[in-house]
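Holo model, magnesium ion. Inputs:
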Amino acid sequence: MGIIIKSPNEINIMRQAGRIVATILAALKSEVRSGISTGMLDAIATRMFQEYGARASFNGYRGFPASICTSVNEEVVHGRPGGRVLQEGDLIAIDVGAIYNGFQGDAAITVGVGQISPEAESLIDTTRRSLEAGIAAAREGARLSDISAAIQLCAESNGFSPVRQYVGHGIGRQMHEKPEIPNFGPPGKGPILKRGMTLALEPMINAGGWATKVLPDRWTVVTADGSLSAHFEHTIAITNGAAEILTV
Ligand code: MG
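Output:
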């Protein structure tokens, strides 16, 4: 099965799912401070999912035990919320996925805790701008890997490394649909982007090398060299003009 094209009505439901994701992320961002645990952030998210009549996409996904993913400092993605208490200078990536009326929204942000290092500041800023560059490349008629190349160029021109083992993805009724969207690679390859495609773009950018490994908990992905990592993600729809961000 190829890339699934969504109808305007389906995209409208995805807008609603996306708005729930964005609302939860904004609330969590405002709670990030020294002294709060990742488990407390997860509890806030769990309550909000219930309030909005949505389900957390990640909860139970391949046995994942929480509503959101929280990945701190050298953790790249898939961190499990728990007793870890955030401290001044930490970076936390928060990934939220919602299922609403049968459709998915998926987005992530990275936030500094209090005062962070200039390198950490630059990494967060670059990762956010890499996502923006990817979204700008996601136009009807472009090729899929134009997105990948735009993300890679932004990350590497600032001295950072896009992760290669984990990728963005199509999204719709399923959290992970075709195609896979790497955060690196030459432009001009892969399928032509068509109106009605819905994609989750998610640069994961390391301050050091691109290599990662999975911790013995079998979930948490960390940088192989222990360097910091940041992650931003939006769910978008391809339109006849600029891509529409659904997770706002
Ligand atoms: Mg995703």
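Residues 106, 169, 200, 202, 233 surround magnesium ion (CB under 6 Å). Residues 8-31 form the longest helix (24 residues).
Archived with the compound record.
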